[in-house]
Amino acid sequence: MASTEMEMGVVGGGVNSSGGGSCGGLVVTELSHIKELVRQLEVHLGGSPDLCKHLASQIFSLTERSIGLITSSNLDGARRQKRPAGDAGLASPLSATPTSDVTDGPFQSTKKKRKVMEQRRQRVSSAGGENPVEDGHSWRKYGQKEILGAKHPRGYYRCTHRHSQGCPATKQVQRTDEDPTVYDVIYHGGHTCVHRAAAGQAQATAPPEHRPDAHGHLRSLGAGLTVKTETEEGLPAAAPLCLSASTPPVSGGGCPCPCLAPSTPENWGVSPASSNSNHAASYLPFEDAEWRGHAGLQEVVSASAPPPPAVDSLDDLLLLVDIDDIASLFD
DNA sequence: AACATTTGACCTGG
DNA sequence: CCAGGTCAAATGTT
Questions:
Q1: Which nucleotides along chain C are within 7 A of a protein C-beta?
Q2: Residue A154: is its pLDDT beyond 60?
Q3: CA of residue A242 to C1' of nucleotide C12, angstroms
Q4: Which residues have a Cβ under 8 Å from the Cβ of A41 and sit 6 or more positions away?
Q5: Which of A27, A176, A205, A301 has its CA 20 to 30 A from that of A237?
Q6: Where is this gene product found (predicted)?
Q7: What is the pLDDT of residue A176?
Q8: CB–CB of A44/A52 below 8 Å?
Q9: CATH topology for A119-188?
Q10: What's the pLDDT score for residue A192?
Q11: Strand B-proximal residues, CB under 7 Å?
């Protein structure tokens, strides 16, 4: 049984970072390039599909490179600054989890599947509502565990499409000790699943906040959400956004993110007992292997914020991805 | 019937 | 040996 499960994702897929060092300038250059490409893409939207595809793939590879640079930089920083594990209950997951070298080859042997994948941590507030945040993915709970030093058990979830598509994404959800309405969500691995059919259906039937098109997603991303992103050292960082252009959207401008199955009320990273259908919001943690560079980032997501600006154009999208913000990481 | 959750047992790394 | 992570049978839900 366990042996039949494919653990092969696109983990560690070809982000070639050029060593650590100060890469801020390089990243800015790369991102500026991306920005320009996106502008071109916008111009050609509705025009030649081939050209759009070409631009998309260029954006994709540039993004990969940039993330590689950011990743290597962040990891360096994280390694250098050792974290005191004193922080009651919360300190453990990221710092104490002995994630193996993320820069190394992803697989050594099938036995060593544990902890091979990178992880990202988010703090999710459910302020008032029952559910923290909808993340647009289908999760299936496969375990729960009392964690030493923590008041609340940790839930273990994996992508619903794990078996059907071999999607390696998993997440762990745990209430924080300080505030029961706040959850720590740790994601392992990115989604490799694509749920085209369901996504298309969802586009027609699902409520706007669940529509798998980029704009809808970005709207929902903002809908009632503030995303404060910071590194472990407390540096400001770019908001996590789904920019992957790896999967060409369904014609007419779908979401570039894979695995956008219509979310179910059970998607919630909380005990199903407390989950119901009136989720407060949606957000996109990270969708692709390319976005795994945020290993050192901790995102703080609050579900109680006022309605956000709509993202109606790629320009709006670009506004959300402020290159300067990213650049400031390296200042 | 199919799918999801619960939960105790098992496995693994430190 | 212990804590964390995963498995899988039992159970619940739709």
A1: 2-9
A2: yes
A3: 36
A4: A52, A55, A56, A59, A314
A5: A176
A6: Nucleus
A7: 83
A8: yes
A9: N-terminal domain of TfIIb (2.20.25)
A10: 76
A11: A 98, 100, 111-112, 114-115, 138-145, 155, 160, 266, 271-273
